[in-house]
Design brief:
Layout: H1 7-11, E1 24-25, E2 32-36, E3 44-50, E4 53-59, E5 66-69, E6 83-85, E7 88-90, E8 97-98, E9 104-106, E10 121-122, E11 124-127, E12 130-133, E13 157-162, E14 165-166, H2 170-178, H3 187-190, E15 192-202, E16 206-217, H4 222-228, E17 244-250, E18 253-259, E19 265-275, E20 283-292, H5 297-332, H6 342-354, E21 356-357
Antiparallel strand pairs: 1-21, 2-12, 3-4, 4-5, 5-10, 6-7, 7-8, 8-9, 11-12, 13-20, 14-20, 15-16, 16-17, 17-18, 18-19, 19-20
Helix pairs in contact: 2-6, 4-5
Amino acid sequence: MLMEASKSQKDDQDRKPEYDLRQIDCDPDFWYPVAWSHKVRRGKAFAARYAGYPVALIRPESGPVYALEDRCAHRQVPLSKGVVEKNCIKCCYHGWSFDSDGQCVTVPYLNREGVGRPVRSFPCREKGGLIFIFPGDPALADSVPLPGVAQVGNPDYKTRQFSPRLKCHYTFMHENLMDMNHQFLHRRQMGSITARFLGQDKGENFQEARYSFARKGGEQPLAEALIFGRHKDLQGREQPVEEVVSIRTTYPYQTLQIHDKDGDLIMDLWTCYVPLGADQQGTQAFGLLSVKKPKWGFLLDLAWPVLGLFTHRIFEEDREIVELEQKAWRELGGDRNIEVFPTVKALRGLLARCGVPNKMAKPVQKG
C-alpha cells in the first residue's frame, strides 16, 4: 500500500535500476498540506485526500483539528459526512463514535466497551493557514519539521493563497518552475524577456537555481514590475543584475524568492504539490505568495487584483504545458524527455532519489 512505503525502499534505489520519473511516488514520510484551515470549521468535518487515500479532517468543538481515515470501521461510510459532538466524530449511518486517535468510543445500540473497531489516525498540524498531515510512518512525524510557508504572519508582506488542481504528475511542476528558460511561453503576458542563469547549489535533499531577467524589448507590464521590479528596454545594451530570482526544491517542497539589488527579500513563494490519485498522475497544489509591502502599503492593496490576474494567467499557461507533457507521457508509453539543462537534470535526480518507485514502475531501458 502506498501509505506504508518505507525508507528502506528509497535506500534500496541506489542498488536498483533507474525508473521512469513519472512512476516515482512522493515519499509519504513528510508533512503534506491537504486543506486550508478556513475550510474546516469549528464543530465540522471536511473530506480531503492524499494519493487516493481518503482523509477526514475534524475540528472539534474545542481543541486542535485532527485527521482520520475517511471510512467508518463499520460499513466504510465516509466519516466526513458525520456529526461532530464535543471532541468526537459520529458516523452518519449508525452513530459509531471515534475520538482523535481513531478509537471507537461508542457503539450506541450495544452500549458496551470493546465492540467497535478503530480507524487509522494521522499526525496532524496547522501552520500558515494550512492543515498538514503526515501520511507515512507516524513514529517519524515528531522528527520531521513542518516547512516554512512564505511570509505568512509577517506584517511587512501581503500574502495570497492558491490551490489549483492539475492533471499531471507532481514532478512536471517541479521541473517547470525550476527551469526559467521557458519565458518564451509567457511572451503574451510578459513581453520580450530572457532569463540569465547565475548559478546553482545542490545537496542530498535540495536543488537551487538562480536567475536574473533582462528585458529585450517592449513595455513592461505593471504586474510584472510589481514582482520583478521596474525594468526598461536598454535598446541592445546589457541590463545590469538588479533582482535575483532563486528557485529551490527542498524535497518535497518548492520555493521561489526574489531579492533586490540590496539583498532584501521582495517576493516569497512557497508551494507543495500533493498527489491526488493512487497513481499520482494528478496533483493538488497548495501555494502561498508573499509580496513585500512598499512604503505606501495602500498601493499594493490597489494593485493586488491586477497582480492576482497576472499570476493566474501565467499559471494557466504553465498548466496547459505540464498537462500536455503528461498527455505525451501516456501516449508515448513513458518518459521520452531529452533534458540538456544541467540544473533540471540534477533536479530529476533529486526527485528520483528522494521518492519511492510505485508498484507499476519498470526499470528504464538504457542505450
